[in-house]
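Give me C-alpha coordinates for this 278-residue protein.
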Amino acid sequence: MDYYSTLGVQRNASPDEIKSAYRKMAMKHHPDRGGDEKKFKEISEAYDVLSDPQKKQIFDMGGDPRGNQGHGGFHHGQGPFEFHFNHNNWNDIFGGFGFGQRPMQRNKTINIVVGISLEEVLTGKTLDAEITIPGGKKKIINIDIPPGIDDGQQIRYSGMGDNGISNLPPGDLIVNIRINNSTEFRREADALWLEKNISVWDAILGCKLDVQTLDKKNIQISVPPGTQSDTVLSCKHEGLPNMRSRQRGNLLIKIKIIIPRNINDLQRKKIEEIKGNF
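Here you go.
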Protein backbone atom coordinates (compact mmCIF):
# COMPACT_ATOMS: atom_id res chain seq x y z
CA MET A 1 0.00 0.00 0.00
CA ASP A 2 1.22 3.52 -0.85
CA TYR A 3 0.41 5.35 2.36
CA TYR A 4 0.95 8.76 0.77
CA SER A 5 -1.59 8.03 -1.97
CA THR A 6 -4.03 6.65 0.58
CA LEU A 7 -4.03 9.99 2.44
CA GLY A 8 -3.72 12.00 -0.78
CA VAL A 9 -0.52 13.83 0.25
CA GLN A 10 2.89 14.34 -1.33
CA ARG A 11 5.94 12.44 -0.06
CA ASN A 12 7.37 15.68 1.29
CA ALA A 13 4.18 16.55 3.21
CA SER A 14 4.66 18.09 6.64
CA PRO A 15 3.31 16.44 9.83
CA ASP A 16 0.53 19.05 9.95
CA GLU A 17 -0.45 18.32 6.34
CA ILE A 18 -0.51 14.58 7.05
CA LYS A 19 -2.61 15.13 10.15
CA SER A 20 -5.04 17.41 8.30
CA ALA A 21 -5.40 14.96 5.42
CA TYR A 22 -6.07 12.10 7.81
CA ARG A 23 -8.69 14.08 9.68
CA LYS A 24 -10.61 14.82 6.48
CA MET A 25 -10.39 11.26 5.20
CA ALA A 26 -11.31 9.70 8.55
CA MET A 27 -14.32 12.00 8.94
CA LYS A 28 -15.49 10.98 5.48
CA HIS A 29 -14.94 7.22 5.72
CA HIS A 30 -15.52 6.40 9.40
CA PRO A 31 -17.94 3.42 9.68
CA ASP A 32 -20.00 5.16 12.34
CA ARG A 33 -20.70 7.87 9.78
CA GLY A 34 -21.71 5.40 7.07
CA GLY A 35 -18.23 5.01 5.60
CA ASP A 36 -16.48 1.94 4.28
CA GLU A 37 -14.85 -0.22 6.96
CA LYS A 38 -12.00 -1.39 4.73
CA LYS A 39 -11.22 2.10 3.47
CA PHE A 40 -11.17 3.50 6.99
CA LYS A 41 -8.75 0.76 8.07
CA GLU A 42 -6.41 1.68 5.21
CA ILE A 43 -6.58 5.38 6.08
CA SER A 44 -5.90 4.67 9.75
CA GLU A 45 -2.96 2.41 8.89
CA ALA A 46 -1.49 5.08 6.63
CA TYR A 47 -1.73 7.74 9.30
CA ASP A 48 -0.27 5.44 11.95
CA VAL A 49 2.81 4.93 9.79
CA LEU A 50 3.26 8.46 8.40
CA SER A 51 2.70 10.16 11.75
CA ASP A 52 5.42 8.09 13.40
CA PRO A 53 8.91 9.32 12.33
CA GLN A 54 10.51 5.89 12.83
CA LYS A 55 7.84 3.98 10.90
CA LYS A 56 7.79 6.67 8.22
CA GLN A 57 11.54 6.35 7.73
CA ILE A 58 11.27 2.57 7.39
CA PHE A 59 8.51 2.94 4.80
CA ASP A 60 10.42 5.63 2.86
CA MET A 61 13.42 3.28 2.70
CA GLY A 62 11.26 0.49 1.25
CA GLY A 63 10.85 -1.52 4.45
CA ASP A 64 7.70 -2.83 6.12
CA PRO A 65 6.82 -0.52 9.05
CA ARG A 66 4.09 -2.88 10.24
CA GLY A 67 6.67 -5.03 11.91
CA ASN A 68 7.11 -2.20 14.43
CA GLN A 69 3.39 -1.79 15.01
CA GLY A 70 2.64 -0.49 18.48
CA HIS A 71 -0.46 -1.19 20.52
CA GLY A 72 -2.84 1.35 21.97
CA GLY A 73 -6.34 1.82 23.23
CA PHE A 74 -8.46 1.83 20.06
CA HIS A 75 -8.74 -1.33 17.99
CA HIS A 76 -10.37 -1.33 14.57
CA GLY A 77 -10.31 -4.01 11.88
CA GLN A 78 -10.00 -7.72 11.36
CA GLY A 79 -7.96 -10.05 9.10
CA PRO A 80 -4.25 -10.46 8.51
CA PHE A 81 -3.55 -6.91 9.63
CA GLU A 82 -5.22 -5.56 12.76
CA PHE A 83 -4.73 -1.85 13.20
CA HIS A 84 -4.31 -0.63 16.78
CA PHE A 85 -4.78 3.12 17.09
CA ASN A 86 -3.70 5.06 20.16
CA HIS A 87 -6.53 6.96 21.90
CA ASN A 88 -4.24 9.89 22.60
CA ASN A 89 -3.72 10.46 18.88
CA TRP A 90 -7.44 10.14 18.23
CA ASN A 91 -8.32 12.70 20.91
CA ASP A 92 -5.58 15.01 19.70
CA ILE A 93 -6.94 14.96 16.16
CA PHE A 94 -10.67 14.99 16.83
CA GLY A 95 -10.78 16.88 20.15
CA GLY A 96 -12.08 13.92 22.11
CA PHE A 97 -15.21 13.50 20.00
CA GLY A 98 -16.15 9.82 19.85
CA PHE A 99 -17.79 8.81 16.59
CA GLY A 100 -19.05 5.64 18.23
CA GLN A 101 -21.06 7.61 20.81
CA ARG A 102 -24.08 8.94 18.98
CA PRO A 103 -25.80 11.88 20.72
CA MET A 104 -28.95 10.82 22.51
CA GLN A 105 -32.06 12.02 20.73
CA ARG A 106 -34.50 14.07 22.72
CA ASN A 107 -37.36 16.49 22.27
CA LYS A 108 -36.64 20.05 21.20
CA THR A 109 -35.10 22.73 23.38
CA ILE A 110 -37.28 25.82 23.79
CA ASN A 111 -35.76 29.30 24.04
CA ILE A 112 -37.59 32.24 25.59
CA VAL A 113 -36.54 35.81 26.37
CA VAL A 114 -37.34 37.47 29.70
CA GLY A 115 -36.82 41.19 30.17
CA ILE A 116 -36.12 42.63 33.60
CA SER A 117 -35.27 46.07 34.97
CA LEU A 118 -32.01 47.11 36.60
CA GLU A 119 -33.90 47.31 39.90
CA GLU A 120 -34.85 43.64 39.49
CA VAL A 121 -31.20 42.77 38.92
CA LEU A 122 -30.59 44.21 42.38
CA THR A 123 -33.28 42.16 44.11
CA GLY A 124 -33.68 39.15 41.84
CA LYS A 125 -37.08 38.13 40.51
CA THR A 126 -39.42 35.17 40.51
CA LEU A 127 -42.06 34.95 37.82
CA ASP A 128 -44.36 32.54 36.06
CA ALA A 129 -43.81 32.29 32.30
CA GLU A 130 -46.33 30.76 29.93
CA ILE A 131 -44.62 28.89 27.12
CA THR A 132 -46.10 27.26 24.05
CA ILE A 133 -44.61 23.91 23.12
CA PRO A 134 -44.79 22.39 19.61
CA GLY A 135 -48.33 21.20 18.97
CA GLY A 136 -49.88 24.31 20.51
CA LYS A 137 -49.92 23.15 24.12
CA LYS A 138 -49.23 25.73 26.81
CA LYS A 139 -47.64 25.28 30.21
CA ILE A 140 -46.60 27.54 33.07
CA ILE A 141 -42.98 27.51 34.21
CA ASN A 142 -41.80 29.11 37.45
CA ILE A 143 -38.60 31.04 36.71
CA ASP A 144 -36.22 32.16 39.45
CA ILE A 145 -33.83 34.93 38.34
CA PRO A 146 -30.97 35.41 40.83
CA PRO A 147 -29.74 38.85 41.94
CA GLY A 148 -26.78 40.18 39.98
CA ILE A 149 -27.56 38.37 36.73
CA ASP A 150 -26.05 39.97 33.63
CA ASP A 151 -27.59 40.90 30.31
CA GLY A 152 -27.40 38.00 27.86
CA GLN A 153 -26.95 35.31 30.49
CA GLN A 154 -29.00 32.12 30.18
CA ILE A 155 -30.80 29.97 32.72
CA ARG A 156 -31.34 26.36 31.68
CA TYR A 157 -34.17 24.25 33.05
CA SER A 158 -33.50 20.61 32.20
CA GLY A 159 -36.49 18.64 30.97
CA MET A 160 -38.84 21.64 30.94
CA GLY A 161 -38.95 22.09 27.17
CA ASP A 162 -40.84 20.23 24.45
CA ASN A 163 -42.22 16.79 25.33
CA GLY A 164 -44.33 16.17 22.23
CA ILE A 165 -42.66 12.87 21.31
CA SER A 166 -43.59 10.56 24.16
CA ASN A 167 -40.87 7.96 23.66
CA LEU A 168 -38.04 10.55 23.80
CA PRO A 169 -36.71 12.45 26.85
CA PRO A 170 -38.14 15.97 27.18
CA GLY A 171 -36.11 18.88 25.87
CA ASP A 172 -34.74 21.75 27.94
CA LEU A 173 -36.03 25.28 28.48
CA ILE A 174 -33.46 28.06 28.07
CA VAL A 175 -34.34 31.46 29.51
CA ASN A 176 -32.38 34.31 27.88
CA ILE A 177 -32.11 37.37 30.11
CA ARG A 178 -32.45 40.86 28.67
CA ILE A 179 -31.93 43.82 31.00
CA ASN A 180 -33.78 47.01 30.15
CA ASN A 181 -31.68 50.16 30.13
CA SER A 182 -32.04 52.66 32.96
CA THR A 183 -32.39 56.34 32.19
CA GLU A 184 -30.37 57.27 35.27
CA PHE A 185 -27.92 54.49 36.10
CA ARG A 186 -25.34 52.77 33.92
CA ARG A 187 -24.09 49.30 34.80
CA GLU A 188 -20.46 48.16 34.65
CA ALA A 189 -20.10 44.64 36.09
CA ASP A 190 -21.16 45.00 39.73
CA ALA A 191 -20.72 48.79 39.78
CA LEU A 192 -23.37 51.38 39.03
CA TRP A 193 -22.50 54.74 37.46
CA LEU A 194 -24.43 57.93 38.03
CA GLU A 195 -23.75 61.45 36.76
CA LYS A 196 -24.49 64.48 38.94
CA ASN A 197 -24.31 68.15 37.98
CA ILE A 198 -23.03 70.80 40.34
CA SER A 199 -22.41 74.52 39.86
CA VAL A 200 -18.97 75.94 39.40
CA TRP A 201 -19.37 77.66 42.78
CA ASP A 202 -20.06 74.37 44.55
CA ALA A 203 -17.08 72.86 42.77
CA ILE A 204 -14.87 75.68 44.04
CA LEU A 205 -16.21 75.84 47.58
CA GLY A 206 -17.31 72.23 48.09
CA CYS A 207 -20.83 71.12 48.94
CA LYS A 208 -23.12 68.35 50.13
CA LEU A 209 -24.81 66.37 47.38
CA ASP A 210 -28.06 64.43 47.86
CA VAL A 211 -28.18 61.15 45.96
CA GLN A 212 -30.89 58.52 45.62
CA THR A 213 -29.58 54.98 45.13
CA LEU A 214 -31.05 52.33 42.86
CA ASP A 215 -33.07 50.93 45.77
CA LYS A 216 -34.50 54.40 46.50
CA LYS A 217 -32.33 55.08 49.52
CA ASN A 218 -31.42 58.75 50.09
CA ILE A 219 -27.78 59.36 50.97
CA GLN A 220 -25.64 62.48 51.18
CA ILE A 221 -22.07 62.68 49.94
CA SER A 222 -19.45 65.36 50.37
CA VAL A 223 -17.99 67.10 47.35
CA PRO A 224 -14.59 68.48 48.42
CA PRO A 225 -13.54 72.06 47.58
CA GLY A 226 -11.73 72.37 44.27
CA THR A 227 -13.41 69.39 42.68
CA GLN A 228 -12.71 69.11 38.95
CA SER A 229 -15.16 68.05 36.28
CA ASP A 230 -15.30 64.25 35.71
CA THR A 231 -14.11 63.56 39.25
CA VAL A 232 -15.53 60.20 40.41
CA LEU A 233 -16.80 59.80 43.97
CA SER A 234 -17.50 56.31 45.30
CA CYS A 235 -20.21 55.04 47.64
CA LYS A 236 -19.33 51.58 48.90
CA HIS A 237 -21.81 48.70 48.61
CA GLU A 238 -24.47 50.71 46.81
CA GLY A 239 -24.04 48.96 43.47
CA LEU A 240 -25.28 45.57 42.25
CA PRO A 241 -24.71 42.21 43.95
CA ASN A 242 -22.13 39.77 42.68
CA MET A 243 -23.85 36.51 41.66
CA ARG A 244 -21.28 34.40 43.50
CA SER A 245 -20.35 36.37 46.59
CA ARG A 246 -23.66 38.29 46.87
CA GLN A 247 -21.57 41.27 47.96
CA ARG A 248 -22.66 44.52 46.38
CA GLY A 249 -20.37 46.62 44.25
CA ASN A 250 -20.00 50.38 44.51
CA LEU A 251 -22.03 53.31 43.29
CA LEU A 252 -19.71 55.57 41.30
CA ILE A 253 -20.78 59.19 40.92
CA LYS A 254 -19.20 61.23 38.15
CA ILE A 255 -19.26 64.96 38.82
CA LYS A 256 -20.16 67.32 35.99
CA ILE A 257 -19.55 71.04 36.54
CA ILE A 258 -22.08 73.44 35.06
CA ILE A 259 -20.71 76.79 33.87
CA PRO A 260 -23.31 79.59 33.78
CA ARG A 261 -23.91 80.87 30.25
CA ASN A 262 -25.67 84.19 30.99
CA ILE A 263 -24.31 86.62 33.56
CA ASN A 264 -25.06 90.34 33.96
CA ASP A 265 -22.55 93.17 34.05
CA LEU A 266 -22.41 93.31 37.85
CA GLN A 267 -21.75 89.58 38.12
CA ARG A 268 -19.09 89.78 35.44
CA LYS A 269 -17.35 92.62 37.28
CA LYS A 270 -17.28 90.69 40.56
CA ILE A 271 -15.93 87.59 38.83
CA GLU A 272 -13.20 89.68 37.22
CA GLU A 273 -12.30 91.08 40.64
CA ILE A 274 -12.06 87.55 42.07
CA LYS A 275 -10.00 86.46 39.08
CA GLY A 276 -7.60 89.33 39.65
CA ASN A 277 -6.90 88.10 43.16
CA PHE A 278 -5.62 84.68 41.97
